[in-house]
Design goal:
Blueprint: H1 20-25, H2 30-41, H3 45-54, H4 61-77, H5 80-95, E1 98-100, E2 107-109, H6 113-133, H7 140-157, H8 168-178, H9 186-196, H10 202-207, H11 210-223, H12 227-232, H13 239-257, H14 261-264, H15 267-275
Antiparallel strand pairs: 1-2
Helix pairs in contact: 2-6, 2-11, 4-5, 4-15, 6-7
């Protein structure tokens, strides 16, 4: 006869259903946060040197965004083993990303803890701020808890605990400290052009509303950037832009929240709910 000790307890993964991470990363607007993060990451010259020299961003930009989304889903909702395996694959890719920035002639490597911290912070900040703009009720305490939870995800990729922010205030302090190192170069402008006018198959671009819809969404991702980032790109950093971005994100969030669950919930979240018996 089997005992209760013999029963297999489902693995909730790194965070579990009671975490703020589950809520924030289940937001249908998370993809908008991902595009915002890409635009924000682009103003770090060494981070962009690695993207320009080693990634498939130019030849397969949509595939790169999709793989990033898959990784976030695996770490957020997968089992502990699945999260560690996904991170191990990324670390393996990072080991081969080394070189010299052709502009500043400074060496870079993707596994550099400071570059890893930059990418981590921009993603965490973008996911959180987009969810809040879209209408998700997140208290200041929950926002800090989300940032602290995400430190675990950063650790999987090699972000040292002493470098990673653990609160919203620490994120603001991090941005303030790193801004002198940031600039908008040719690769950053290439990323901006992709976001505002991405390549699409002709049938989709001309026979569907995808192109005008993306113009609105890409513009929203840009408008939701911090004011100082928009100014670095040479475009308006006015407070009114913040208000307009929040209003647009709120309207979009309300519209998406009315869709059936099968359209709002990603496959990683659905699988996690099934694993934990939450369906």
């Amino acid at each position: 006869m089997s005992s209760a000790l013999d029963e297999v307890v489902p693995d909730p993964g790194l965070f579990g259903p009671e975490s703020v991470t589950w809520r924030v990363h289940a937001d249908p607007l998370i993809w908008l946060g991902g595009v915002r993060a890409l635009l924000l990451q682009a103003v770090h010259p060494l981070a962009m040197a690695g993207v320009a020299g080693h990634s498939q961003f130019r030849s397969d930009p949509w595939g790169r965004l999709f793989r990033t989304a898959q990784y976030v889903g695996a770490v957020s909702y997968g089992t502990t083993t699945e999260a560690h395996r996904a991170a191990a694959r990324v670390r393996g890719v990072h080991r081969g990303v080394v070189g010299i920035d052709p502009v500043s002639h400074r060496p870079y490597r993707a596994s550099d803890p400071e570059l890893l911290t930059w990418v981590h912070v921009t993603e965490v900040d973008s996911f959180l701020s987009t969810a809040r703009r879209g209408g998700m009720a997140i208290s200041d305490e929950e926002a800090d808890r989300y940032v602290a939870e995400q430190a675990r995800a950063g650790a999987l990729l090699g972000v040292p605990d002493e470098l990673v922010p653990h609160s919203v205030a620490e994120i603001a302090g991090y941005y303030q400290a790193i801004r002198p190192e940031l600039s908008v170069g040719s690769t950053a402008r290439e990323v901006l052009r992709f976001v505002l006018h991405p390549p699409m198959p002709a049938k989709i671009a001309y026979l569907t509303p995808a192109r005008p819809a993306w113009y609105s969404l890409g513009g929203l991702a840009f408008a939701s950037l911090p004011r100082w980032t928009r100014r670095m790109y040479g475009l308006p950093g006015l407070p009114t832009t913040d208000l307009a971005a929040t209003a647009a994100a709120r309207s979009l969030g309300v519209a998406l929240s009315r869709l059936p669950k099968r359209y709002r919930e990603g496959p990683a979240l659905v699988a996690a709910k099934e694993r934990l018996g939450l369906t």
